[in-house]
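Q: what does this look like with zinc ion bound?
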Amino acid sequence: MTSLHKKVILLLIISASFCMSAFAQKNYLDIDRLIRVGLKSTGKHKKFQLEPSNGYLEIFDNTNKKAVYTGKASYAVITYVRKGTYKITIDGKKNFLNLSGEMLFSPIGKPPNFMKVKVAKRKSRSYRGSIAIVSESSFLFAINQIDMEDYLKSVVPSEIFNRAPAPAMEAQAIAARTYAVRNITRHRKNSSYDLCDTVHCQAYTGIVKEIKAATSAVKNTEGKVLTFADVPANTVYHSNCGGILICSTAAWGGKEIPYLVSHRDGIKGQELFCNVGTKIKKKKISDLKLQKPVSKLIVRSYPKTTKKRYHKNFGHRVGMCQDGAIGMGAIGYSSRQILGFYYPGTRLVTLNYARPKKAPVPEQKPGKRVIKPEPIILAMKPDKLKDENLSEIKLEFPLNPTQLNAIESSQKSDKKSVIRTLKEVSESRESKKAGFRKVFWNPSQPDISKISTN
Ligand SMILES: [Zn+2]
Ligand SMILES: [Zn+2]
């Protein structure tokens, strides 16, 4: 219990800092790292069951901006009642009736933390981040509110060979991130999420897909995207090009795209990169005699009408050849060289959320600030707390149940950090006009990710 509550405290520190209004993509560099993925493959249902991985749950009313419940929960069942109305039952005992709009369910407790989503007749899936349940006319629908980088940890292994060398894995991570950023508004017109979890956007099945190598690749390329003419590039990829990549016009018609040109998948006089890649998939790198990387990779484009190939291709042959990327990675090329080869002329940039933070704003003198209370429904009565604990917390708004829990269960040595934490939470509440938090915690905060599944 002690270590769990230490984590709860840690989670408090990092809550409260996300603003979703940035979804309108004015500048892709400013994109919010918190994204919303519509769980289309799970589908619409009359009933959802959510299970927080550590037995603690926060429910936040995203429509009315208030906490509904924080505390112990093995599972929560959300049931459609009638048009636009649903109810939540926690552990088959506590009921929250006549609910509408969107509720955000966040697992809290010791990381790694995730939420299992169960619906009738389907295999359950677990997701990092939070799950939002939205009522849609006569059904309920789930949205995974998740950190972009955590989302990619699941997407990347779905898209590439699991034992791909690190540079190829990293190139894939950058391509997938770029694709997500480029398409971040594609569902916004008719839905309240950014991307869906099907191949329409990128296949995403949650935590089950994650592997160590892909997680490292995502971490090593944090926030990096490929751009051309100051917009995210169209980082299309395919399985195997057949030895010669073709230009986008030859594949799909339309305007020529300067970085999606036709060229040989390799260097003249050397083995094709995708041939090397196919061998790597069958044998260990150490068992193969590989060519050496050249210092100057030059892409010589073929006529745009070329559809010539050396062997059978798999996929549309435009952009990055994944087997080729695997071959290049094994030979010793870096992810940047791989991307430069398959998307010549593009630039690698880092999204603002992954850039070093500006110096923190200096603390204001105590006593000067007025903390406006947030309406909070207490799920636990304050009289359960020992007075001596509460007397040390000098805050001018009602504490939420998680905070109360944290104080109650924390050991004496932790009191200072609890107080500091609560102050930080109160300050960040004040700074956000539109609701003090959209998500209770952010799984990719540095403090947390160190102890995550990696
Ligand atoms: Zn989609
Ligand atoms: Zn190829």
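Residues 240-241, 265, 274, 321, 323-324 surround zinc ion (ligand 2) (CB under 6 Å). The radius of gyration is 25 Å.
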